[in-house]
Amino acid sequence: MPIPTPNLYPDFNIIRLSHVVFGVSDLAKSRHFYVDTLGLQVTDEDDNRIYLRAMEERGHHCLVLEKSDSATIKSLSFKVFDEGELDKAHDWFKKNGHPVEWVERPYQGRTLRTTDCFDVPIELYFKMDRLAPIHQQYALYKGVKPLRIDHFNLFSPDVDEAVAFYNQLGFRVTEYTEDEESGKLWAAWTHRKGGVHDMAFTNGRGPRLHHTAFWVPTPLNIIDLCDLMATTGYVDNIERGPGRHGISNAFFLYILDPDGHRIEIYCSDYQTVDPDLEAIKWDLKDPQRQTLWGAAAPRSWFEHGSEFENLDPRDAQLNATPIVAP
Amino acid sequence: MPIPTPNLYPDFNIIRLSHVVFGVSDLAKSRHFYVDTLGLQVTDEDDNRIYLRAMEERGHHCLVLEKSDSATIKSLSFKVFDEGELDKAHDWFKKNGHPVEWVERPYQGRTLRTTDCFDVPIELYFKMDRLAPIHQQYALYKGVKPLRIDHFNLFSPDVDEAVAFYNQLGFRVTEYTEDEESGKLWAAWTHRKGGVHDMAFTNGRGPRLHHTAFWVPTPLNIIDLCDLMATTGYVDNIERGPGRHGISNAFFLYILDPDGHRIEIYCSDYQTVDPDLEAIKWDLKDPQRQTLWGAAAPRSWFEHGSEFENLDPRDAQLNATPIVAP
Amino acid sequence: MPIPTPNLYPDFNIIRLSHVVFGVSDLAKSRHFYVDTLGLQVTDEDDNRIYLRAMEERGHHCLVLEKSDSATIKSLSFKVFDEGELDKAHDWFKKNGHPVEWVERPYQGRTLRTTDCFDVPIELYFKMDRLAPIHQQYALYKGVKPLRIDHFNLFSPDVDEAVAFYNQLGFRVTEYTEDEESGKLWAAWTHRKGGVHDMAFTNGRGPRLHHTAFWVPTPLNIIDLCDLMATTGYVDNIERGPGRHGISNAFFLYILDPDGHRIEIYCSDYQTVDPDLEAIKWDLKDPQRQTLWGAAAPRSWFEHGSEFENLDPRDAQLNATPIVAP
Amino acid sequence: MPIPTPNLYPDFNIIRLSHVVFGVSDLAKSRHFYVDTLGLQVTDEDDNRIYLRAMEERGHHCLVLEKSDSATIKSLSFKVFDEGELDKAHDWFKKNGHPVEWVERPYQGRTLRTTDCFDVPIELYFKMDRLAPIHQQYALYKGVKPLRIDHFNLFSPDVDEAVAFYNQLGFRVTEYTEDEESGKLWAAWTHRKGGVHDMAFTNGRGPRLHHTAFWVPTPLNIIDLCDLMATTGYVDNIERGPGRHGISNAFFLYILDPDGHRIEIYCSDYQTVDPDLEAIKWDLKDPQRQTLWGAAAPRSWFEHGSEFENLDPRDAQLNATPIVAP
Ligand SMILES: [Ca+2]
Ligand SMILES: [Fe+2]
Ligand SMILES: [Fe+2]
Ligand SMILES: [Fe+2]
Ligand SMILES: [Fe+2]
């Protein structure tokens, strides 16, 4: 059986993905991409870091750009339900053999740094500085009108193992792709917050971050972004789409930032709060799995990803081949 | 202080609103409205009842039309997190002096019938027949392309009392309107599922059901519905909108069904899963509260509602007057 | 018979409306409205005038803001098919007893100033400075993303007379409203360029300019403008809409500039190039005439307009009453 | 110089493209595609032909499906400005050595059948049965909500020659692609009705019909059609797109009907009524020429087309190669 029984009562309560720290080589270039083009809002910046939030978020940041020699990912962060959950998390990770450390993070309360099953650096916190709402300051909206961070997608050397691990943390599978021959998972989408996913896993050399997704109001905002990027020097940064995913039924666009970190612009998936929601299974060879309209993803989409800082990826166990654009 | 501290650990776990039973005088007329015009899908029907679901729902029904001598509301229903939560709910309601009864409902498992603080008939269940997904059967989409039931809004004779009651059940306030003079709540929006609301309360003769809302993909679907209703004999059933709410920031349209039950078509609110989300306060006299663009709601919107079966409404305690269209 | 036989072979060839000169009391305030909020592009400006074009236009200006003691309209301008048509127009207006004058206009070639049947100042030209296309410079798009000027609508003291006059100039009626009792026209829409209208006439104290309309890509841009105006101090400048017109079937919004000049934001009408297109007749008492969805226009919409410079309006002949919002 | 001076005073006045007759192998299959899926309206049908119109058209047909042994194109038709223009056209074609014939066509008045410079069968008429408007019967809208026929695109063995010929007929070039090496035209877009084109020409084995385009309200209707086709057995009929054209700036989708006739769904180009509109030049090697967002067209798009009945195509003179998807 490819997917585990959902763990409805995990030992601690992660409520959602929260933010990610990207190492970037040139803050000015990244700022032009994320602020002037995508339309994220700067909440703080100095010579080393830019903190960003999307339009409906009240937490201080959903994306941190950190000047860095390597374009690596520093950590993936998650918000827990209250302060006490942090302690429960600390104990769980420690008990299960993961390194645990309380770290200082600007604009955040107590923050627990640990790792997942593949040594991916993850951080958990409850308190982050709360900012005044700006979602009705329409003069601030620009670019793709990003509303909120939606999910992470990771290349995983063993998707079954990733799903088993995050299932312990209460991430519930909503859709998945199975390799018919081996019976192994090729990809899976798992959620905490009631959408199709907070975390997805794709078979491939990993762990690496495949992409970080932002939610936008409608497909027309995605078309607007294509027009804007195509006429402001970013035409080569449009990697795939726009289109409708088979999996998740969402409307998507994949773009690459100046350092090659992949961003998905995403809207229109569905509500998944029911604990008895049945996961939807897709066959790896179904051409509508990736794009409902039939267009295959380009090879780069299956091969390129961002490494985590100081963490060497390894090849995937599963050698099954998806449909790649010719 | 007008709103209570959120109860993050209620005695039992309601995950979301689920469905409503409308008494209707003519099933054929109601079917023409809900199925042929709005685009809800029939999941079962006989001479007495039509069961409907929206496009992304897998539960058997979100709306039940029941042939009835009176156009009253039979019950409001909620889904709980698992079977055990039903027993906890049973005990809680009983302990707190509400009538409790296990009732039989087609397509549902054990169902607890009880009442809220104003004797509104509410029903809780965990299990409902699960149907195959149809959200990617695009040939079935029509009308306004309804995706899911979103919320109930009730006229309440005392909004402070309603909020206090539902707060015990874990409904968290996201936005509210205060009457500056009395310091009392005039309206409040409260959620369980992570959107702006599952349940809202509006000051007025009550308890009565003000409206039931359905979520749709984009504002353009709402424009499409206006065009359709305006040219198929339903022009007088368009009561208010379309427009953008100040409260919730959602795009809305209010329409009346053949029996006068009010339906809101709704999209574009925001995610509220953070337990530390700060509620947004509005002044009753703010003209942008109702409609961000300044248009006042018509008098009927403040006065007309659907009564619950065998339940006489009473006048509201608070006599404050909202802004009404001239 | 209320509308004349179309004159398919007028004595000279006007191809389309072109631009209008608004007297404004405060150029900075007007600039904030038209440039920063609506999104028109400045093509020239000095202490007395701001020249503007919309995104797909290559002519130098579609709107000129002129600092003025009175918020009056200085002229309505039209482009003719070639230089020779100007001379034909000159002779025609002179022969028909209208004052004719060759005037100097910046960025334009020879310009004929004359009047219509109610002494409205109109100007005709063929040559205007042509600018490089900007319609694919998507970084310039903002506000409502105005694409082009679409039409003028005038209050006319006698719509039959206005239609008879413009019919001589080849303006063809596409839709019209008749007062059933008197058999007189209450309003008419007439075109040269192949859309529903270049010039419309509404019964009322006149001549006055009722509004100037700009074409935008989709209804969603109009919703965006409502959101923007509502949150940047312009909520009281939103007069009517958004909605679907019965007449023209277009999606619309009416707003007022800082001097009270009315602007319509408009999209989605239909192609009318067929010379044998049958005009569509509407009854003045049809509630869907104004707004297909049934909402009546407010009283201000029937009463307020911009006077032309040095031209006193007179009361309308026809006293029929349209449906006005209560 | 690659494009000729526009002929502003052609010998007769064609106002717009009108309709096309497709030979189809199976009327039922074609009906399912054009009526049930795209949403065109049947205006007449029998065992041999189906006549169709789009939602805002009042002429009887814009597309005729004719049962046929070969999936060829029977004729391209154009509407002239009045009856007298037909006689002028007759004389012009005869004088210039083209075969001329008055033919009987159902629902049309006098119809002149002749040929263009490559023997493509073209038909001209003024009168066609006019039908009652249906553009406000919103219950009839379905599929992609086609509003009107927009343009033909032909493979031409010599685009310079095609442009020279149609320029004599008053078709004005709005945009064009030049092969830098040879200085010859690789493609051109020419119009009569005030949009980017009625007729476009693409270098290639020809004459063949590359595609017929229909205008729809917004890009979202095109997304809706993709979703519908992808889930009703037509996923393989989606050939290219959706995307934004560089040339014309329109939003597009290319699909293939059951016989392989290519249809473009199209919206959002710009107004071109100015006689002094400057044509926009593109380089054949500009990757944003085809798709502003950079995606190359597939090979089939450059190679596949529909032949005209009894007319053998020949290879193109120009051997320049466009950018083709790998
Ligand atoms: Ca849209
Ligand atoms: Fe994703
Ligand atoms: Fe509501
Ligand atoms: Fe207008
Ligand atoms: Fe085309």
UniProtKB/TrEMBL annotation, chains A, B, C, D:
Its EC number is 1.13.11.15. The keyword Iron applies. GO terms for molecular function: 3,4-dihydroxyphenylacetate 2,3-dioxygenase activity. Gene3D superfamilies: 2,3-Dihydroxybiphenyl 1,2-Dioxygenase, domain 1 (3.10.180.10). Keywords: Aromatic hydrocarbons catabolism, Dioxygenase, Iron, Metal-binding, Oxidoreductase. SUPFAM superfamilies: Glyoxalase/Bleomycin resistance protein/Dihydroxybiphenyl dioxygenase (SSF54593). InterPro entries: DHPA_dOase_Mn/Fe, Glyas_Bleomycin-R_OHBP_Dase, Glyas_Fos-R_dOase_dom, Glyoxalase_1_CS, GlyoxalaseI/FosfomycinResist, VOC_core, Xdiol_ring_cleave_dOase_1/2. Pfam families: Glyoxalase (PF00903). Residues 16-127, 148-268 form the VOC domain. Its cofactor is Fe(2+). Belongs to the extradiol ring-cleavage dioxygenase family. NCBIfam families: HpaD (TIGR02295). This is 3,4-dihydroxyphenylacetate 2,3-dioxygenase.
